[in-house]
Amino acid sequence: MLQEEEEEVLPLSPEGHELPAPESSSAPADAKPLSPSVLPLPPTASRMPGAAPEATPPPRSQAPKSLPSTVGVQDWAATEHAWLGRAFILVNSGCIDNINHFTQHPIRTNKICHALKATHSELVELEPRCYRLAAVVSDYDIHPEFKHNGFRSILLSVWKCLRQLQEALARCAQERSSYFFLSFDAVYEQIEDFGARMLSKFNVLLELTLELQAILPAREQFVTIEGNATAEHIFRCGQSVDVTCFYGARAGFHYESGIQHLMKAILTAMASFSDAYHSTEDNQFVKGLSSAWSAVKYALDPEVKAQRLVEQMRRRNPAFVKSFWNLTDSTLARNMSKIALPSIAVNRVLFIIGSNLVHDIPDGRLIISPPIVGRLGECRHRHGETQPISPDYASFLRRAYHELFAAMDPHELHQVGQRVRERLRRLPISPAEREALESTLYQMFELAKRQQAAATISGAPTSAQTASTQPAARQDDTVGELVQEESVLNHDVTNELDRRDTDAAASQAGAASDATAKADADDLPALVLDSRDVEDMPETSPDEVGDVAVSIFTKAHVGSRVPSVSFKPPEESAFQGIPRFGAIQVRLLCAKKYTGQATPSKKGAAKHAIPVVEDTNIAPAKGLLVHFHGGGFLSNSSKSHEVYLRNWARDLDVPILSVDYSLAPEAQFPRAAEECFYAYVWALEHASLLGTTADRVLVAGDSAGGNLAVSVALRCLVEGARAPDAIYAFYPVLNVKLALSSSRMLASFDCLLSQGVLETCLIGYVGKQDKSVQDNPFLSPFRATDSLLARIPVTYLVGLAMDPLLDDTLAFASRLKAVGARHCVSVLGDIPHGCLNFKDLTRQTKAAYQHCLSLLREGLEDTAPAEKPEWRTYRKPLPPQPTRGRTADRSAEPTMVLHGGGGNTHVGSNSIHTVAPPPQPSSGK
Ligand SMILES: CCCCCCCC/C=C\CCCCCCCC(=O)O[C@H]1CC[C@@]2(C)C(=CC[C@H]3[C@@H]4CC[C@H]([C@H](C)CCCC(C)C)[C@@]4(C)CC[C@@H]32)C1
Predict the structure, then answer these.
(1) Average pLDDT of the chain to the nearest whole number
(2) For residue 2, what are the contacts with CB-CB under 8 A and spacing of at least 6?
(3) Are 93 and 215 in the same domain?
(4) At which of 811, 832, 864 does a domain end?
(5) Mean pLDDT across the stretch 901-906?
(6) Whether residue 525 is found in the same domain as residue 591
(7) CB 485, CB 493: distance < 8 Å
(8) Geometric angle at alpha carbon 87, from 83 and 93, rounded to 5°
(9) 332 lines ligand 1 (CB under 6 A)
(10) What is the average pLDDT across 714-727?
(11) Residues 294-298: contacts with CB within 8 Å, 24+ apart?
């Protein structure tokens, strides 16, 4: 039984280790592999031509000394990659066969012959390079039975290219003798693209990859670029290689066919968006029209599109990347998603107003302060000058905040206000800081007052009142306030909170608080410096920086601001305001209305009134899922990720709280990480408002969100907060550093995460911060210390074989293994980064969704395998699919899941065993 299953667990090798029959029904009957011995050599093709195919930056090294200039089938047979060797033989013979034919039967144009010869010379160069790599790939597996690493993925990509080349060669062989060689142009283009052009780039990339392999110690994934001459060289070459051939008609060649169309569509959209973005046209309508026209133009001419894209990616412009990716948040996309996505009972944006959280832990209480908005150390005054912020500033602000919100009643608030003001007078700070603080305090004071008044009316306890029932917490207990927000599309949420403040004050505080308010305002004249209404304040306009800086309770989520497809470049970012506290935007998604959940106020109440707690018949859920969306830290939102969140809410039947953390580059690290942590603790403390008992709490995120999920868990360990019961990181980035890895080499032809885009995200999120920040475990969990990682809760990692970030997953899994932390890592094939966002589009992405879902279930129900030590490998069955008479595409089949054991046991390779997958409750599989 074990043996049988072991056989099932194949590494990510392509279909049957052979090039499959060409997909086209016109496949030649004689497209059988030819034996190398019967291959005639073309007259022009030497086995090792010296000429480089194109002027590309990296110098081509000589053939490896240890290798013969040709690689025979028997050489390949000794490696695990015999299938790649066979592909080379097949393509090589197809190439030679066609060359021979066209040499003997010249046709009116010899361009196809040129293409074939060029292809052949690329092939003979590429084969030994691949062979060299194939001989060492297994050194980089994180486990002998878990055959995944970036080097393997590169070889697989070569194979995918060869497969499509072979298809063209076979078609050519079949049709070349026909009088009407109708598909001549198509065949020629296919040979030219996959052969002459792509193989030549693969030659360059393989050469760079081999250089990388030479400096990468076995079993390691990363090499830091800085300070390593070879790595720097590889990196620079990677930047300058002309990769246009990967972004044109053949974009996404390494994915399954359904995904290829999608990638091409996204790239067309990106190219035309780029045109519109950089156009000087003012009229939005004309801009829209010209963009639609360029989309048509690019769809018809993929070559021009590719050039445009490569040029755009090289610019490394975070604002552009952000604007384009944020199209998913556009009104159009939102409306479309509203129609297409399943409906759920609760889908609501909430704001958590930052205040000190009191978090009960077994050893006592923990006070978690809200993240500070804006960068410490720098203050841009509204009159323009920039000056440093004194360290006293933040501590004063925190303390004042804490005191004001702990006040029990208007009288006490009044007294606290005076005390704070007195302290401020004595504080040795600059006039600009003083001015900002005074204004900030004024707003805090106003808010605290409204909170008290609103609580008096609604009967809900204020933070201070809550505290009064718990004397021990009296000092610090201020409950983060929850503000319900609209569900109206295209509602600008930026000023939601401010409006809510005004509305709530007007409608709820009413006359009862008016007198107090007046008295307080009179008593605190020094705090009233800038009481201008903040409602219509643009968030990132440079001119308004001063104003933005002093408005403490505007929404913290400053990133995603492209409410409609306006094609307008965002204003230059100027979010360098004076540190302040900000409200954190979150979205609550539930399939049901659980009892005790905070729901919108009753009909007729002010729109932004404080939500009420409702009784329904549905008992609170036991679990809670706190989610962080991806988007390269620059873009996207909980809304754009509803594509799968709504399904999760239904399929998992737990409330999901998705955090709309602040986005880069306006808010750089550590803002997002801090906000996520704060929102997580807030959710624990207010679980009942979310409709859950929070018996089991999971954190999950995809991509950049996966990074934040792990970061939150690590911060829990460091701060002593209750750690989540399980962590889920789907294709995460875990080493946010300018570092090379084998899978990052895939960025050269990745449609979504090209090298330029990865660098852009890095620049956007980390910016010019001190280098030491790169080793911060909250930024790069991969860099956390052993002792910290050893305490991490069970971690589920899902990587993608063709993803440039695959090594982030593998390297982290390998560290978890080394410290004996329980984890589960799986690698899915053939689908692009961000696959959860494309979950309904293809069979493979659906399967990926199902796989992630089953892992989440395992965590929620606590059915993770308990045996220790255990490395569990099994393959998840894919859902049945119709093959429509064609060879089933099995290339994505090998999905392996590896579970790592817990405790301090070091897991050795001899403890490997295979077991059947655990029974999955109604997962639909
Ligand atoms: C040799 C290379 C060396 C490189 C060294 C650099 C190393 C740098 C290391 C770390 C830096 C940080 C890396 C950050 C990683 C980011 C991970 C990360 O978060 O990735 C996400 C990025 C956004 C995105 C791609 C995604 C998922 C879904 C995608 C969206 C689906 C549809 C969306 C279209 C725009 C819709 C168009 C609709 C319109 C109406 C036509 C689309 C494509 C937007 C983008 C997202 C995954």
Answers:
(1) 72
(2) 913, 914, 915
(3) yes
(4) 864
(5) 31
(6) no
(7) yes
(8) 145
(9) yes
(10) 96
(11) 295/268, 295/269, 295/271, 297/272, 298/268, 298/271, 298/272
Q: What is the pTM of this model?
A: 0.75
Tell me the pairing of strands 794-800 and 726-730: parallel
Considering the domain architecture, whether residues 219 and 252 belong to the same structural domain is answered as no
> Quick check: 606 pLDDT over 90?
no
Of 225, 253, 288, at which residue does a domain stop?
Answer: 225
Our count of domains for the chain comes to 4
The answer to whether residue 240 is catalytic is: no
* Residue 898 β-bridge partners: 825, 873
pLDDT at 722 over 70: yes
Mutate to test the pocket of ligand 1, among 330, 751, 758 (most ligand atoms within 8 A of CB): 758
Give me the mean pLDDT over the 892-921 stretch: 31
Q: Kindly indicate the confidence band of residue 61, based on its pLDDT and cuts at 50, 70 and 90.
A: very low
565 lines ligand 1 (CB under 6 A): no
Q: For residues 15 and 887, is the Cβ–Cβ distance under 8 A? A: yes
Query: Residue 445 sits in which domain range?
Result: 374-561
Catalytic residue among 703, 742, 754, 891: 703
Q: Average pLDDT of 121-128?
A: 95
The response to whether residue 427 sits with its C-beta less than 6 Å from ligand 1 reads no
pLDDT-based confidence at 794, cuts 50/70/90? Answer: very high
Contacts of 783 (CB under 8 A, 6+ apart): 735, 737, 774, 775, 776, 777
Which helix (H) or strand (E) segment holds residue 70: the answer is none
From 325, 331, 746, 750, mutation site for ligand 1 pocket: most ligand atoms within 8 A of C-beta: 325
Which amino acid is it at 668? Q
Q: Which of 100-104, 136-140, 601-605, 613-617 has the highest mean pLDDT?
A: 136-140
- Per-residue model confidence (pLDDT) at position 408: 75
Residue of 285, 198, 318 lying closest to 249 (CA atoms): 198
**Does residue 476 lie within any of the structural domains?**
yes
The CATH number given to whatever domain includes residue 601 is 3.40.50.1820
Give mean pLDDT, residues 449-473.
Answer: 44
Residue 439 in any domain: the answer is yes
Counted residue by residue, the chain has a size of: 925
**C-beta of residue 721 within 8 angstroms of C-beta of residue 366:** yes
Establish whether this prediction's ipTM goes over 0.95.
Answer: yes
d(CA 751, CA 765): 21
